[in-house]
Each structure stands twice: as structure tokens, then as C-alpha cells.
């Protein structure tokens, strides 16, 4: 298994297909929300915001955009946090999948969040976000595609960007396989969750990716449960 995970997998996930029925997408998005809540994914996204804002006095509201937003669960979590502890926020989610955006727009708790169905590269901002981020999105792409993504996030954010994604590790691979087999009702989650780990990253790969994008200053921090928080200030 260690040999199997030595290099990133480029096998496509089922969610990357464009023929998945809406109801199956909906179930998948609901389960990803639970996974992010119980395994700390939402907390990592909030940590990314805090790392980029620091102690500085912010223009209000803080404009935050997520690319590959799926059903909007990260943005919902950020909105709840901001209401209790953070600055006022203006939230936007971008996803190329119309079913993901359709589901996100149907969720009552997402009211007040703007959702855009588009390839992130085609979006033109009237006012650039302070922060752009992605969560469990980068592992869907090749290194060449990621180089373009890193450059785009840097060029389109005024404070910086962060990435919340998976650490490719045997314990993570076995654990998520057992957990989803036992508790998931979504065939998409059962198939894609372990595969996502195989498509994840080790620290040295982040270093090479950022270097290839011409970005020399960034911070890569390991987070429980087998996640990376990679931040880059503008």
C-alpha cells in the first residue's frame, strides 16, 4: 500500500463525470458536509481565513470566494463563524457543475451566499475578493492545471488565498475507506473518498507546485485529520 501511494493517482472520480443524477449529487453533498464537520474540514477553512487576516483591521465586509464550492458547506460554516466571532463577510461560491450549484442554491441555510455556475477561470470580478480558497478541490487536477489555478488565485485575491486539501497517507486511505463503507449511503462517497486520498499530496509536492507557479512565499501546515492548510499572502 505504501508503494501504491508513493505517487499521485490521476484516476478520475465519479463526481468528475457530467452524467450523475441530481439526487445522487445531493446525497453526496450532504455526506461531504458531515465529513467536513466531524473530521475538522470546516475548522481548517476558518483557520485559513484567520491566518490571512491576522490582526489587521479589515475593510467591511470581508469578501471571501470559494472555487469548487460544491454544495456550499464550507461557506455556510464560515458564515456561522463570522456571525459569532468573525468580521462581517460577503460570501461567494463558484462551481462548474450545475447540479452542485443547483443543490447549493436550494439549501435554506445558504441564503445570502452568492453562487456562480462557471469554470472559475471564466469569472470576472467587479471587485476582487479579499480571500479566495478551495477545499477538497485541488486533488481533482493535474500539476499543469494546478499551476494555472495557483496563479489565478494569487492574481484575483487582494489579501491572499488558501488551500484545504488531503494528505496522501496510508492511514488516511484505510481509515476513510472503512468509515465510508460503514456509514455512507452514497456510492459516490464510497468510491471517491479513498480515491481522493490517492489523488492527494505530500509536502514536497506542494513545494514543487508553488515553485512551478512562480510563488516563493507560502505556508504549508499539516492538520488533523490528514489535511494540508496551504496559505499564501498577497
Overall form: globular
Radius of gyration: 17 Å
Strand content: 15-25%
End-to-end separation: 39 Å
**Adjacency order of strands in the biggest sheet:** 3-2-1-4-5-7-6
Question: H/E order of the elements?
Answer: HHEHEHEEHEHHHEE
Mean pLDDT over the residues:
95
Detail the poorly predicted runs.
none
Record field, number of beta strands: 7
Total helical segments? 8
Provide the structure class: alpha/beta
Helix content: 40-55%
The main sheet comes to: 7 strands, mixed
Any overview of this molecule?
With 234 residues, this protein is α/β, with parallel strands linked by helices. It has helices spanning 22-38, 41-53, 73-84, 98-106, 143-156, 170-183, 187-198, 203-212, and strands spanning 62-67, 89-95, 114-117, 131-135, 160-166, 219-223, 227-233. Helix 6 runs antiparallel to helix 7 (187-198). The longest helix has 17 residues, at 22-38. The N and C termini lie far apart (39 Å).
Descriptive keywords:
18% strand; 8 helices; 7 strands; 234 residues; seven-stranded mixed beta sheet
Topology:
Layout: H1 22-38, H2 41-53, E1 62-67, H3 73-84, E2 89-95, H4 98-106, E3 114-117, E4 131-135, H5 143-156, E5 160-166, H6 170-183, H7 187-198, H8 203-212, E6 219-223, E7 227-233
Parallel strand pairs: 1-2, 1-4, 2-3, 4-5
Antiparallel strand pairs: 5-7, 6-7
Short description:
The protein has 8 helices and 7 strands.
Amino acid at each position: 500500500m505504501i508503494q501504491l501511494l508513493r505517487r499521485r493517482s490521476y484516476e478520475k472520480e465519479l463526481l468528475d463525470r457530467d452524467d450523475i443524477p441530481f439526487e445522487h449529487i445531493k446525497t453526496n453533498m450532504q455526506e461531504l458536509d458531515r465529513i467536513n464537520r466531524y473530521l475538522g474540514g470546516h475548522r481548517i477553512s476558518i483557520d485559513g481565513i484567520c491566518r490571512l487576516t491576522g490582526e489587521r483591521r479589515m475593510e467591511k465586509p470581508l469578501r471571501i470566494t470559494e472555487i469548487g464550492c460544491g454544495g456550499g458547506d464550507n461557506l455556510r460554516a464560515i458564515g456561522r463563524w463570522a456571525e459569532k466571532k468573525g468580521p462581517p463577510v460577503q460570501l461567494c461560491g463558484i462551481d462548474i457543475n450545475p447540479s452542485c450549484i443547483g443543490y447549493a442554491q436550494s439549501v435554506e441555510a445558504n441564503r445570502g451566499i452568492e453562487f456562480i455556475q462557471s469554470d472559475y477561470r471564466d469569472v470576472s470580478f467587479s471587485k476582487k475578493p479579499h480571500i479566495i480558497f478551495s477545499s477538497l478541490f485541488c486533488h481533482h487536477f493535474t500539476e499543469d492545471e494546478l499551476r494555472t489555478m495557483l496563479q489565478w488565485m494569487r492574481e484575483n485575491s487582494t489579501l491572499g488565498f488558501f488551500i484545504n486539501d488531503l494528505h496522501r497517507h496510508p492511514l488516511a486511505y484505510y481509515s476513510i475507506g472503512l468509515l465510508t463503507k460503514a456509514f455512507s449511503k452514497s456510492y459516490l462517497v464510497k468510491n471517491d473518498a479513498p480515491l481522493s486520498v490517492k489523488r492527494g499530496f505530500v509536502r514536497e509536492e506542494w513545494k514543487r507546485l508553488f515553485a512551478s507557479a512562480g510563488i516563493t512565499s507560502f505556508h504549508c501546515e499539516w492538520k488533523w485529520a490528514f489535511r494540508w492548510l496551504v496559505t499564501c499572502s498577497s
